[in-house]
């Protein structure tokens, strides 16, 4: 139990075909309640931090929050740096104690992406950490990183060369998924996941999970998507529950910050429990 490596958490999920929620937190309140939701659901959890969150809170402060909140925790959990093109931020987080990183070099030519990813994997291994990689940009922006333009998809042969050369522990292909709020129902290329896993059995990361249907989640997970990212839903839950509480507080003329924190925290916990149930990770801790 307690803090584990990304590989330790995803190996059984990949083998048994369930998905582990990988939820992007934004502050101490969301970190506390995502972890609490995982404990309530009896689910392993991957707590993700964006570069924006790392910079706004600070590497050391954020890690100390994580260390304090996971002391004695009863479910497997990992601390993951999401979409990071900045090698210095990756180095700082690995040195501080992050258990895994996503080196996002998808804007670079594949050859340069591959060369630098090999270096990042070697660096991570010195800390006993893992690396998620990608060679195709996921459409949409995540905390200011990314592009709204859909990137060109690479052939299976290119993906396999990258996987074999880099030794990344998790791979994030583009399958029609997108970051942010979907403007229309996405059409996913499920076969890309099946083809990748058949040719090179590696846990797949499904990005842009917020807004996918339960059926789409189940199909992707059954094909090998063991890590399922949730970011936009967390932000919406956090802000919408805050707004609803504040409107009610204004109507009543009662301004009690601890009650606000409790209300918002409960919404975040409930969201975490919901996704653990949908992804099949509930009870797997």
UniProtKB/TrEMBL annotation:
It holds the Pfam family F_bP_aldolase. One of its GO terms (molecular function) is zinc ion binding. This is Fructose-bisphosphate aldolase class II. Dihydroxyacetone phosphate binds at residues 180, 208-210, 229-232. Zn(2+) 2 binds at residues 104, 134. One of its GO terms (biological process) is carbohydrate metabolic process. Binds 2 Zn(2+) ions per subunit. One is catalytic and the other provides a structural contribution. Its cofactor is Zn(2+). It comes from Propionicimonas paludicola. PANTHER family: D-TAGATOSE-1,6-BISPHOSPHATE ALDOLASE (PTHR30304), D-TAGATOSE-1,6-BISPHOSPHATE ALDOLASE SUBUNIT GATY-RELATED (PTHR30304:SF0). Zn(2+) 1 binds at residues 83, 179, 207. Keywords: Metal-binding, Zinc. Gene3D superfamilies: Aldolase class I. The keyword Nucleotide-binding does not apply. The active site is at residue 82.
């Amino acid at each position: 139990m307690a803090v584990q490596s990304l590989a330790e958490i995803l190996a059984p999920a990949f083998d048994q075909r369930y998905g582990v929620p990988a939820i992007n937190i934004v502050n101490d309140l969301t970190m506390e309640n995502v972890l609490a939701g995982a404990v309530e659901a009896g689910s392993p959890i991957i707590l993700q931090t964006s570069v924006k969150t790392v910079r706004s809170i600070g590497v050391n402060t954020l890690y100390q929050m994580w260390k304090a909140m996971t002391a004695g925790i009863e479910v497997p959990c990992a601390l993951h740096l999401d979409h990071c093109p900045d090698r210095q931020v990756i180095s700082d987080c690995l040195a501080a104690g992050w258990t895994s990183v996503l080196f996002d070099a998808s804007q670079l030519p594949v050859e340069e992406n591959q060369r630098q990813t090999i270096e990042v994997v070697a660096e991570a291994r010195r800390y006993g950490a893992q690396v998620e990689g990608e060679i195709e940009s996921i459409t949409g922006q995540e905390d200011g990183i990314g592009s709204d333009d859909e990137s060109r998809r690479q052939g299976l042969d290119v993906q396999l060369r990258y996987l074999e050369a880099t030794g990344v522990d998790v791979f994030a292909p583009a399958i029609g998924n997108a970051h942010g709020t979907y403007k229309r129902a996405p059409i996913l290329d499920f076969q890309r996941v099946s083809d990748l896993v058949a040719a090179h059995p590696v846990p797949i990361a499904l990005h842009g999970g917020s807004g996918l249907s339960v059926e789409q989640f189940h199909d992707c997970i059954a094909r090998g998507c063991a890590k399922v990212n949730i970011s936009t839903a967390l932000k919406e839950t956090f802000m919408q529950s805050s707004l609803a509480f504040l409107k009610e507080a204004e109507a009543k003329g009662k301004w009690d910050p601890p009650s606000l924190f409790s209300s918002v925290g409960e919404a975040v916990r409930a969201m975490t429990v919901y996704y653990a149930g949908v992804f099949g990770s509930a009870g797997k801790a």
